[in-house]
């Protein structure tokens, strides 16, 4: 009896010790995972911290109502074992290896800086896509030149690009297509404007490091506003990444054109934007649709390539509208305003 009693006490003691160790480890030791969930949504037609999200000066601005909310995904980092289990079991979050969000060869600060750079680029492209759609003045300029690239001794930052290889260009995509039509080693004439003077320069194409048969000139073009009086600035807070492009573009168009895109409705969405108006897919679509519905949205603009994932966990009461370009998004909004059936996922 004494031995059995001693064994029982020992078993309880060991179990208690293991439980305490588990509790300590589970609540203090971080695991290499992050939890992704619904993030903040921002009305691009409204204010953030008492400042307009999209601020336009130097021209007449049309009044707007309703919402055009950009959506985000929250990233919960520094999780303990119990944190990750709690968030996963809640059903609102997905747990992923941390390295998928924060690559091991980059610091957290470097990733955040890249996200901010992507947002800045998204804002610039949103301006370009909106102004081109509205037929307002834009110009295609050299944003940067690779220091060791084929264009480094020929082109300068700020040069206005008029044609590449004899083909007129007005977007970044035009430049890419014109260069890809050439072969490595080709002499490519480029009409440019530098300091107000038009001239023709010649770039000898190199080859891409990842595709030796594809021409490369080491140039990053950018479509920019060409109206010196018009100023468009953005205030989105700490949001990073490129996925707000579509919604920012729609906000600029709504405020610079007569009538309303929303018809007073609460519309949210996501998607990258190119300066030619192409809408691209993003990550975390189901988290964004949930955040939008919880904020009050009834319509959500979904990039076409995200439709299958979006419909896998669509919130009740949220109409998922499929878009592939700026024109298709505007057409879909026309349908929503008029009560017609918009293209859906």
UniProtKB/TrEMBL annotation:
Record-stated family: Belongs to the peptidase S16 family.
Annotated ranges, domain PDZ: 140-196
Protein known as: endopeptidase La
Catalytic reactions on record: Hydrolysis of proteins in presence of ATP
Keywords: Hydrolase, Protease, Serine protease
Residue ranges of every copy of the Lon proteolytic domain listed in the record: 235-336
GO molecular function: ATP binding; ATP-dependent peptidase activity; serine-type endopeptidase activity
Biased composition (Low complexity): 106-118
EC number in record: 3.4.21.53
Cited Gene3D superfamilies: 2.30.42.10, 3.30.230.10
SMART domains assigned to the protein according to its UniProt record, in alphabetical order: PDZ
Region (Disordered): 105-128
Source organism per UniProt: Gordonia otitidis (strain DSM 44809 / CCUG 52243 / JCM 12355 / NBRC 100426 / IFM 10032)
Any one biological process term the GO annotation gives: proteolysis
Alphabetical list of InterPro entries matching this protein: Lon_proteolytic, Lon_Prtase, PDZ, PDZ_sf, Ribosomal_Su5_D2-typ_SF, Ribsml_uS5_D2-typ_fold_subgr
Active site: 243, 288
Any one Pfam family match given in the protein's UniProt record, by short name: Lon_C
């Amino acid at each position: 009896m004494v031995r059995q009693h001693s064994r029982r006490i020992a078993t309880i003691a060991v179990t208690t010790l293991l439980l305490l160790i588990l509790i300590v480890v589970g609540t203090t030791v971080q695991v290499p995972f992050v939890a992704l969930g619904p993030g903040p949504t921002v009305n691009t037609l409204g204010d953030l911290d008492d400042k307009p999200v999209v601020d336009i000066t130097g021209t007449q601005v049309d009044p707007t109502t309703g919402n055009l909310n950009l959506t985000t995904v929250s990233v919960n980092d520094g999780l303990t074992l119990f944190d990750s289990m709690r968030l996963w079991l809640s059903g609102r979050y997905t747990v992923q290896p941390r390295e998928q969000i924060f690559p091991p060869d980059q610091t957290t600060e470097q990733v955040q800086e890249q996200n901010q750079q992507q947002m800045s680029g998204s804002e610039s492209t949103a301006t370009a896509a909106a102004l081109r759609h509205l037929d307002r003045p834009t110009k295609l300029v050299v944003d940067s030149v690779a220091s060791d690239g084929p264009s480094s001794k020929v082109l300068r930052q700020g040069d206005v690009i008029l044609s590449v290889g004899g083909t007129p260009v007005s977007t970044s995509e035009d430049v890419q297509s014109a260069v890809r039509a050439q072969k490595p080693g080709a002499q490519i004439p480029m009409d440019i404007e530098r300091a107000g003077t038009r001239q023709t320069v010649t770039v000898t194409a190199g080859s891409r490091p990842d595709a030796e048969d594809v021409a490369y000139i080491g140039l990053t073009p950018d479509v920019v506003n060409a109206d010196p009086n018009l100023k468009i600035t953005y205030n989105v807070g700490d949001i990073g990444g490129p996925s707000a492009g579509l919604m920012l573009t729609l906000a600029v168009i709504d405020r610079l054109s007569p009538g309303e895109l929303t018809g007073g409705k609460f519309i949210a969405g996501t998607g990258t934007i190119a300066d030619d108006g192409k809408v691209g897919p993003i990550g975390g679509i189901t988290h964004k649709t949930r955040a939008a519905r919880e904020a009050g949205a009834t319509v959500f603009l979904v990039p076409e390539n995200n439709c299958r994932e979006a419909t896998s966990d669509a919130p009740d009461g949220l109409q998922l509208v499929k878009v592939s370009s700026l024109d298709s998004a505007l057409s879909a909004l026309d349908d929503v305003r008029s009560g017609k059936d918009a293209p859906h996922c």
